[in-house]
Specification:
The complex is a heterodimer of chains A (221) and B (247). Chain A is 73% helix and 0% strand. Chain A is an all-alpha fold and 221 residues long. The chains are: A mainly alpha (221), B alpha+beta (247).
Chain lengths: 221, 247
């Protein structure tokens, strides 16, 4: 796939950002890490496009973004959990992720693509998101399809599961396997779809009583 | 290359398998916690309900009852010469007697005060004899000798029996209702059987707005008891409740 088309597809991240800007006053602080993630994602796409055109690689941008994405999502899930019981678990997870990233960067240098950290944190986020969704299914009596936490967690599961498969395909090499090539090509389209899911999630933030952090119940600001 | 492909696919498959297993375990874990939470909620509701019944029963019995008796006493101390007045007084006095007796009945139904003192067998027999010949069902109740009924379970078993009797009288059209309690090595069994018209249990559960069956199920949940309902149209109704030994 031409990287220009890929770039255009990835720019769909603008959609949730625009929705977030329009609805910003209604959105609870509990969602700020996610909004920051969208912003960081948008800047990374721009930086990647620039780096590919100028330096022919976006490995450093992608590596730094991976670490930032991992930490922000962990913090976001921690805020959603909103329980002191999980404090230590999340601190330990962040430390493990940072140590993993540093070790991988030292081992492969920052200019080389390596799949290990991306697979590792994707795996962690998928497990945390599954846990989040199950906890909501049993404990919250709100309509899940209108619940932003549910929509975003579901998007995380789809996206990061695909990321694991995508990293495996990149590791094999698109020139080595036709299947791997198709999986890698599909990532751009999936990314587009996930950004639409994020936009729907952001739209429901603070919109109804189905949002657990809605101002309808909770006036924390 | 083949090795690389094999290992990559294997590792990816393992990761996805772990995700699926984690999902299933997580669902089971949350479901277990949810069931426990539901049970605790029902337990709390029933405890509150029993406390409320106790309070109302005590108020009726200790406050309204003596007041009405005093009223009756004062009325009987009134001397009237007119025959019509005397007749009215007698009527009023009779009504007060009825009210007192109704109050006692209501108070008893809300909470049989003798349950703590006399135990389940006596209280149920008293409950059945109180209904006497006013009901069209002949009720046979027996506790098999040596049956050990835990003190905490008594009130729940009493309420379950009350509900069974009430449902049989109201809906079944039965003429005989047999209730028995027996101890077995694996638990305490409560059997009930009537010769009524029976019903479609599945259909009734889905469509009925009544709380009788639900109430029995809730009490069973509090007791950790197994509840089995055997019924079909025109085949009477059997209920078996097994309260575990350790309860």
């Amino acid at each position: 796939m031409n990287h220009v088309i890929n770039f255009l597809l990835s720019q769909a991240i603008i959609i949730p950002i625009i929705v977030a800007l329009i609805r910003f006053k209604k959105i609870d602080k509990a969602y700020y890490p996610f909004l920051i993630l969208l912003l960081v994602g948008f800047l990374t796409e721009l930086a990647s496009f620039f780096c590919i055109n100028v330096y022919k690689t976006n490995a450093p941008v992608l590596k730094i973004y991976s670490l930032a994405e991992c930490c922000i999502i962990l913090y976001q899930v921690y805020l959603w959990k909103n329980s002191a019981k999980y404090n230590r678990t999340f601190v330990v997870l962040v430390i493990i992720c940072v140590v993993f990233w540093v070790a991988e960067t030292l081992l492969f240098t920052i200019n080389t693509f390596s799949p290990y950290f991306r697979v590792f944190y994707a795996f962690i986020i998928v497990l945390l998101s599954i846990n989040q969704i199950n906890s909501m299914m049993f404990y919250q009596s709100v309509t899940l399809v209108r619940n932003p936490v549910f929509i975003i967690s579901l998007a995380f599961i789809i996206f990061f599961l695909y990321q694991i498969v995508d990293e495996a395909s990149l590791f094999i090499g698109s020139d080595q396997s036709a299947v791997a090539n198709k999986i890698i090509m599909g990532f751009g389209y999936l990314n587009f779809f996930i950004n639409l899911m994020y936009a729907v999630g952001v739209y429901f933030m603070g919109n109804s009583k189905d949002d657990p952090y809605s101002h309808y119940f909770n006036r924390r600001r | 290359m083949t090795d690389k492909l094999f290992y990559t696919v294997s590792i990816t498959s393992i990761l996805i398998a772990i995700v699926i297993i984690f999902f299933v375990i997580s669902v089971i874990r949350y479901h277990k916690r949810y069931t426990q939470l539901q049970k605790e909620r029902i337990q709390a509701q029933i405890i509150i309900q029993e406390q409320e019944r106790k309070r109302i029963a005590n108020d009726l019995h200790d406050s309204l009852g003596p007041m009405l008796s005093t009223v009756k006493l004062f009325m009987s101390s009134i001397t009237v010469n007119d025959e019509t007045d005397q007749e009215s007084l007698n009527k009023a006095s009779g009504y007060i007697d009825d009210v007192i007796s109704n109050l006692r009945e209501i108070s008893y139904n809300l909470l049989p005060s003798s349950l703590d003192r006399n135990g389940l067998e006596i209280v149920i027999n008293e409950y059945i004899s109180r209904m006497g010949s006013s009901v069209p069902v002949s009720i046979n109740f027996a506790i098999v000798k040596g049956a050990m009924i835990p003190k905490k379970a008594e009130i729940h078993l009493f309420r379950i029996i009350q509900e069974i009797v009430h449902n049989t009288i109201k809906h079944s059209g039965a003429t005989i209702l047999k209730i028995s309690i027996a101890s077995h090595p694996d638990g305490l069994y409560l059997f009930s059987e009537d010769n009524g018209r029976g019903f479609d249990a599945e259909y009734t559960r889905e469509t009925s707005a009544g709380l009788g069956l639900k109430s029995i199920e809730n009490r069973c949940q509090v007791l950790d008891a197994d509840f089995k309902l055997i019924t079909a149209k025109n085949e009477g109704c059997k209920m078996i409740i097994k309260v575990p030994v350790n309860n």
